[in-house]
Design a protein that fits this description.
This protein has 344 residues and is mainly alpha-helical. The longest helix is centred in the first third of the chain and has 31 residues. 38% of the residues are buried. The N terminus is likely disordered.
Amino acid sequence: MNNLRLIKSFTAGAFTLFLLSCNNSNSNTENNTATTTTTATVTDKILQELNDKIAADSTDAKLYHLRSKYYLNNKKFGLAKDDGEKAIELDSTKTDYYLTLADIYFYVNETRATNDLLVKCLSIDPNNKEANFRMAELQFYIKHYDDAIKYGKAAYETDTKDLKTNYLLGMILKEKGDTVNAIKFFRNCIDIKPDYFDVYDQMGYIEKARNKPEALDYFNTALKINSESITSLYGRALCYQNKNDFDNAIKDYTAITQLKPDFKDAYFNMGYIHQVNLKMYREAIKYYDQSLVIDSLFTKAVFNKGYCFEQLGDIGNARIMYQKCIEMEPEFKKARESLKRVMK
């Protein structure tokens, strides 16, 4: 999972706006337009009310904080920052004000300022769960894993049954390479929320890396929750491929290309299966060509395509592919060796 997405997914705002998803029918488009208009009207009203209250009392820190959160939710970060700083200027004792301003700074990628605000927040309340959690996220994001674990555990000790804290600690420990302890926190997540998709997906990849048969079970469970997950389909396909279950591997890779046509590795892996395992070199070349349509500089696909031509006795095209590999990657040792072989 992308760390930035993890952090932002847990950031709370003052107001949450829900928009209906659009589709192609005229009637629904009209309904969605009406909903969007209504939502805009509601948010305009909220902002107007806050503006009016601030105009009536410009010393109320809470009002600036609320308007700051409003601007944050609407991605107006400059205005959100101004109001967040004003709220703290008027009342520097409220931890919520520091948390909101830290969120704003994080969104504009000012991690040092984010860190300073969270440090200040924790100086006011060292046991503040949200401050410790956000600090753990921040340290995870900047890859300071030991600090991330320290703050994550401080948040965890406040509430051992908190889903997001258990998941974050699992992710940190996984990235640090401590899969044994990562698994413990991921299993806590399953106890808390048995249908938590992300955990099954993560556990699948952990167990796959450890060559454990349970990996397939985790990916199957993940796909029961979300049947169109690219990451779980890919993980399961790799498991099938490693078990020499090529029919199911190809089935999953094909499903991936239908959901995400630009997923070059799915085409490459199908090419690899046809080349190495099935010895169907012409079919393999077709899959490599599809991966190269997506990424014309995909050196591995060019090299394998050359090998397929060589096995088919088409030395001219094999030579062209190996030469192309060397042009793209001059230090590609296997390509140089292969070119020498076909030049004899």
